[in-house]
Design brief:
The structure holds two protein chains of two kinds. Chain A is α/β, with parallel strands linked by helices. Chain A is 38% helix and 25% strand. Chain A is built from 18 helices and 22 strands. In chain A, the strands form five sheets. A six-stranded mixed β-sheet of chain A has the order 6-9-10-3-11-12, sandwiched between helices. In chain A, helix 13 packs across helix 14 and helix 13 packs parallel to helix 15. Chain A is globular, with a radius of gyration of 24 Å. Chain B is mainly alpha-helical. Chain B has a single domain, classed as ABC transporter involved in vitamin B12 uptake, BtuC (Orthogonal Bundle). A two-stranded antiparallel ribbon of chain B has the order 1-2. Chain B has a two-stranded antiparallel sheet with strand order 3-6. A two-stranded antiparallel sheet of chain B has the order 4-5. In chain B, helix 4 runs parallel beside helix 7 and helix 13 crosses helix 14. The longest helix of chain B has 27 residues. Chain B is globular. The N and C termini of chain B lie close together (10 Å). The chains are: A alpha/beta, B mainly alpha. At the A-B interface, helix 11, helix 12 and helix 13 of A face helix 10 and helix 11 of B.
C-alpha cells in the first residue's frame, strides 16, 4: 500500500475484505490489472475468485478495501454502475434470457430505435453482424436463445459483454467450460485481439493449459487469501498447482494403480444391457453393455449425444426403439422414479438447473432421492436423515458448517459432492455421471476421479461422461465414442488419446 | 460467556420464520392497546369467552383455514384464485341438501311444513358436510388437473373456477339464496365452547395438515418442487402428483371455509360468500413469509398472517373507521406491514439484534 497509484494500472484493488455469515470469503486481497493484459485469476472452489469478481462488478459491497479504476478511487454501486465505468462481465453460469431471441439478448437495453420504437430489422442485422465479426459464428439470431446449446449461449453471452462499446475491462468467468476446442480457439483469438486494443481481461478458468496459452499474469487465491501474483512465464505448471491446492499431487500414479486393480475384477454379466436403444431426433439406436465394477467412458464433442444417452438411460424420456435390461430384467416403464427403484442414478450435466435444490438444506438434498424412492409415507426420521447426511459429508469430505446449511451457500465443488451423495445414498447399481467435474477446481477434480474408481471397486457400474478427454481416459476401463448423436466406436484397454481424437474428428467430417 | 450465548439466540430470533409475522401482529396489537381502551378486555358469559381479541380469532378462522391450503399451493410455485368461488359452491351444496324445497323438488307434504324448523334437515348433517367437502375436493382436483397435467399457468387455470365458481353455486341453488334454519349447522360458525368452534376447526385442520406435511415427506417434496421442479423430477419426485395434492388440499380447505362462512350468515349467498377472500388468503401467506416464487413454507406463520389481517380489520372497526373507507385504510396498513419484509428494513433489524448481542 506504499506504492503510488501508477497510471499504467487499469484496476487496482487494495485490501479487499468481504465476510459472509460464517465465512471470510476475502481476506485483505490485493489485485491489479494492467492495460492490455490477460490476467488469469485462479483458485479452488470457494477460494474467493467469484466473490472478488462480484466486488469488482458491484454485485457485492466489500466490507473494507479500496478500488481504483485508471488511477481514480471509485465506489462501485451496482453491476450497472460497473458497466457504465467500462467493466463488463461474462459469468460462469449463462445468465441471459432463454425466452428472448439471440439478437435481443445481445442488444438488450441498447436496442436500435426508430420513430420511438424498436427497429427489429436493424436489431437483427446488428446482432448477427456482431456475432460474425467478433466470434466468427453464423446463427439465426431471431430464434429464441433457449433453442441453442449451452456452448452457443455462452458465445452469445460473450458477444453481449464485448459489445458494450466502452468496455475497458472484460471479465470472463469460466467462459470455456462448455466450449469445444475450436470454439475456445476462436475465443482466444478474440481475447488477443482485444488485448491489442488495450482492453484488460480477467480470465477465470479451471483449465490450466488454457492459462498458459493466453495469460500474461497469474494471480492465485486460496481460502480468501492472496497466495501469489506473478508473470505466467515465471511459474511452472507444477508450482502453480501446488499453490492452488496447497499440497503436492502425488496421487496420479495411485489412479493408474486403482484402475489396473479394478480392471481385473470387472464382472462378466452385464448390469446394464441396451440393444438398439434410441429415440428419434434424440439419439440414434445403439448397443451398450456395462458390467459391475466397470467404468464406461462416453467421449465426444459438445452435442455429440453424450448427455442424450445419459438422459435416455435414466428414463427422463422414453425410447422409441430397442430394449434396455437392468440387472437382467427388461425395463418397461421409463421414468426417474422407476430408475431409482432399479438402482440407476444420474448426476446431471447442469448442476444448477437439474441437480441441486438450492433452498433446501444439505441434509434434505442428500436424502431427497432416497426418500422419493421410498415414497412419502415411509418418512425417514430426523435422526436417520442426520445420520445419512453426516455419513456422506464425512465420506465425500463435503465442507459445510452443518447439515442444515442451505445448499445455495456451498461452493460449486461441494454442491457437486452433495449431488453425488444424493445418489450414493440410494446405493445404486448403475451410476451415470454427466460432467461430474465441470467447473470444479483441480484438487476436488482429482478427488472425484479417484472416488469414481473406488466406487467401481466397491462393485458399482459407472458411466462416466466428460468433455475433457484426458479425464475420460484416466478414469474409464472402456470408452464409447459418440459423434452426431450416434455411437461410432468403442475402445477398451490402453488406447492413445490421438486415436480417439481421430475417431471423433473422422466421423464429424 | 453471556455474549456468546445471547448472540445466537437473538440471531436465531431474527432468522426465525415466525419473527416478522409475530412482529407485525405485535405492532398492530400494541397500537390497539394505546388507542383503543379495553381492547384486551375479555368477558365471560355462561363460561364462554367474549371480547375483541376473541372476535379477531373467530373472524380470522375462515382466512386461517384458507391460508393453510393456500400455503401449500404457493409453496409449489402456484397460486389458487378460486378459493372464494369454491367456498360458494360448498355453501350452496350444503344449503340445498339441508333445505331442498327451493329447487322445486317434490317433497312429501308432511315434510314441507318442517322447512322453517330449526331442528329439521333433509339430509343428515354428516352427509351434508361430507358431500359438500367432496365437491370442494373435486374443485381442487380440477385446478390441480389444469395446472399439473395440462400445464396451464396457475393464475389462469384457477381463474376459471374463480369466475365460474359463483355461477355454478347459483346453478346448484337455482339462483336462489337459500336460508339455512338448521340449528346444529349454525354451530360450525357461531358455536362456542369457551372459545369459538370455528377457531377449533382451524386449529384442528392446522394440526392435520402440519402432520401430513411434516410428519411425512410431503412437505419436503412440495418445497423441492417449488424450488426446482426439474431437479426434483430427476430425483424421482412426481411434480404432477405433488401439485395435484396441494390443489386438492387447498380445495378441501376452501370447502371447510365455505361451510363456516355459510353457517355464520345462515344462508348460501353465492354472490357474496368469500368475495375477494382469496386475496386475504394470499396476503396471509405472504405475511407469513412464504415466497410467492415457491419453496420454503411455514403453516404456523401463515396462520399468524391471517391473524394480522383480521387484527387490522377489527382494529379499524374499533377505531371507528367508516365502512366505506375501510378498504383504503386497510391497504395502507398492509403496505406498512409489508415494509417490514423489505430487505433494507430486515437488515436494520439484524444490525439491531447484533448490536444488542454485543452489548450484552
Amino acid at each position: 500500500m506504499k506504492e503510488k497509484k501508477t497510471d499504467s494500472l487499469l484496476i487496482e484493488m487494495r485490501g479487499i475484505t468481504k465476510v459472509f455469515p460464517g465465512v471470510k470469503a476475502l481476506d485483505n486481497v490485493d489485485f491489479c490489472l494492467k492495460y492490455g493484459e490477460i490476467h488469469a485469476l485462479l483458485g479452488g472452489n470457494g477460494a474467493g475468485k467469484s466473490t472478488l469478481i462480484k466486488v469488482l462488478t458491484g454485485v457485492e459491497k466489500p466490507d473494507s478495501g479500496r478500488i481504483f479504476l485508471t488511477g481514480n478511487e471509485v465506489t462501485i454501486r451496482s453491476p450497472r454502475h460497473a458497466q457504465e465505468m467500462g467493466i463488463s462481465t461474462v459469468y460462469q453460469e449463462v445468465n441471459l434470457c432463454p425466452n428472448l431471441s439471440v439478437a435481443e439478448n445481445i442488444l438488450i437495453g441498447r436496442q436500435p430505435m426508430k420513430h420511438g420504437r424498436i427497429d427489429w430489422k436493424e436489431l437483427n442485422s446488428q446482432a448477427s453482424g456482431i456475432l460474425k465479426r467478433i466470434l466468427g459464428i453464423d446463427i439465426d439470431v431471431t430464434l429464441l436463445l433457449g433453442t441453442y446449446s449451452v456452448a452457443i449461449q455462452q458465445m452469445v453471452a460473450i458477444a453481449r459483454a464485448l459489445e458494450i462499446e466502452s468496455a475497458k475491462v472484460l471479465i470472463l468467468d469460466e467462459p470455456t467450460s462448455s466450449l469445444t476446442t475450436t470454439e475456445t480457439e476462436q475465443l482466444f483469438t478474440v481475447m488477443r485481439k482485444l488485448k491489442k486494443e488495450n482492453v484488460g481481461i480477467i480470465f477465470i478458468t479451471h483449465f490450466l493449459d488454457q492459462v498458459y496459452q493466453v495469460a500474461d499474469q497469474i494471480t492465485v487465491i486460496r481460502n480468501g487469501k492472496l497466495i501469489c501474483s506473478s508473470e505466467t512465464a515465471s511459474l511452472t505448471k507444477m508450482e502453480l498447482i501446488v499453490k492452488m491446492i496447497g499440497r503436492t499431487i502425488t496421487d496420479l500414479d495411485d489412479m493408474v494403480k486403482i484402475k489396473e486393480k479394478t480392471a481385473r475384477k470387472i464382472g462378466k454379466d452385464s448390469v446394464l444391457h441396451a440393444k438398439d436403444f434410441g429415440r428419434t431426433d434424440w439419439i440414434e439406436p445403439m448397443d451398450l453393455d456395462l458390467h459391475s465394477r466397470e467404468v464406461l467412458g462416453l467421449a465426444g464433442l459438445v452435442g455429440s449425444g453424450r448427455t442424450e444417452t445419459a438422459l435416455l438411460l435414466f428414463g427422463v424420456d422414453s425410447p422409441d426403439s430397442g430394449t434396455l435390461e437392468i440387472g437382467g430384467k427388461n425395463v418397461t416403464k421409463f421414468s426417474p422414479t422407476n430408475s431409482i427403484h432399479q438402482g440407476v442414478a444420474l448426476s446431471p450435466e447442469d448442476r444448477k438447473a437439474a441437480g441441486i435444490i438450492d433452498d433446501l438444506t444439505v441434509r434434505e438434498n442428500i436424502i431427497l432421492a432416497l426418500q422419493a424412492g421410498q415414497g412419502w409415507i415411509k418418512h425417514l426420521s430426523a435422526k436417520k436423515q442426520e445420520q445419512i447426511a453426516q455419513k456422506f459429508i464425512d465420506l465425500l469430505e463435503i465442507s459445510t458448517p452443518s447439515t442444515d446449511q442451505l445448499v445455495r451457500n456451498l461452493s460449486g465443488g461441494n454442491q457437486q459432492k452433495v449431488i453425488l451423495a444424493r445418489w450414493l445414498a440410494i446405493n445404486p447399481r448403475v451410476l451415470i455421471l454427466d460432467e461430474p467435474t465441470r467447473g470444479i477446481d483441480v484438487g476436488t477434480k482429482a478427488e472425484i476421479q479417484k472416488l469414481v474408481l473406488s466406487l467401481a471397486d466397491e462393485g458399482k457400474a459407472i458411466v462416466f461422461i466428460s468433455s475433457e478427454l484426458e479425464e475420460v481416459m484416466r478414469c474409464s476401463h472402456r470408452i464409447t465414442v459418440l459423434s452426431d448423436k450416434e455411437k461410432i466406436a468403442e475402445y477398451s484397454g490402453q488406447v492413445e488419446e490421438r486415436v480417439i481424437l481421430e475417431t471423433m474428428a473422422g466421423s464429424g467430417a | 460467556m453471556t455474549t456468546k450465548n445471547t448472540a445466537p439466540i437473538l440471531e436465531k430470533l431474527t432468522n426465525s420464520r415466525l419473527f416478522y409475522p409475530l412482529l407485525a401482529l405485535g405492532i398492530i396489537l400494541l397500537l390497539d392497546t394505546i388507542f383503543i381502551p379495553d381492547f384486551f378486555s375479555i368477558q365471560i358469559r355462561n363460561g364462554d369467552l367474549y371480547g375483541r381479541v376473541i372476535d379477531i380469532m373467530r373472524n380470522a378462522s375462515t382466512v386461517m383455514v384458507l391460508a393453510l391450503g393456500m400455503t401449500l399451493v404457493i409453496a409449489t410455485g402456484g397460486i389458487d384464485l378460486s378459493v372464494g368461488g369454491v367456498m360458494a359452491i360448498a355453501a350452496s351444496v350444503a344449503a340445498i341438501m339441508m333445505n331442498p324445497v327451493i329447487v322445486g323438488m317434490e317433497l312429501p307434504a308432511d315434510l314441507m311444513k318442517f322447512m322453517n324448523d330449526p331442528n329439521f334437515t333433509y339430509s343428515p348433517l354428516w352427509e351434508v358436510i361430507i358431500v359438500s367437502l367432496i365437491v370442494a375436493l373435486i374443485c381442487g382436483a380440477w385446478n390441480g388437473f389444469l395446472v399439473a397435467y395440462m400445464k396451464i399457468q396457475p393464475m389462469v387455470g384457477t381463474l376459471i373456477l374463480m369466475i365460474a365458481g359463483r355461477g355454478i353455486a347459483q346453478l346448484i341453488t337455482n339462483g336462489v339464496r337459500i336460508q339455512i334454519f338448521y340449528k346444529p349447522y349454525a354451530f360450525l360458525g357461531q358455536g362456542w365452547i369457551i372459545l369459538p368452534i370455528s377457531l377449533y376447526l382451524a386449529i384442528i385442520l392446522f394440526v392435520l395438515i402440519w402432520m401430513l406435511t411434516r410428519k411425512t415427506s410431503i412437505g419436503m417434496f412440495i418445497e423441492s418442487v417449488g424450488i426446482n421442479p426439474k431437479a426434483s423430477f430427476y430425483s424421482g419426485i412426481s411434480e404432477k402428483k405433488i401439485k395435484m395434492l396441494a390443489y386438492m388440499i387447498c380445495g378441501l380447505c376452501a370447502g371447510i371455509a365455505g361451510l363456516i362462512a355459510s353457517s355464520n350468515i345462515k344462508t348460501s349467498d353465492a354472490n357474496n360468500i368469500g368475495l375477494t377472500i382469496e386475496l386475504d388468503a394470499i396476503l396471509a401467506v405472504v405475511i407469513g413469509g412464504t415466497s410467492m416464487a415457491g419453496g420454503r413454507f411455514s403453516l404456523l406463520a401463515s396462520l399468524i398472517g391471517a391473524l394480522v389481517i383480521q387484527a387490522i380489520t377489527t382494529s379499524m372497526y374499533a377505531l371507528g373507521v367508516p365502512a366505506f373507507a375501510l378498504q383504503a385504510v386497510k391497504g395502507f396498513v398492509v403496505i406498512f406491514v409489508i415494509f417490514l419484509y423489505a430487505e433494507p428494513v430486515r437488515q436494520v433489524f439484524r444490525k439491531l439484534t447484533v448490536k444488542k448481542a454485543e452489548k450484552a
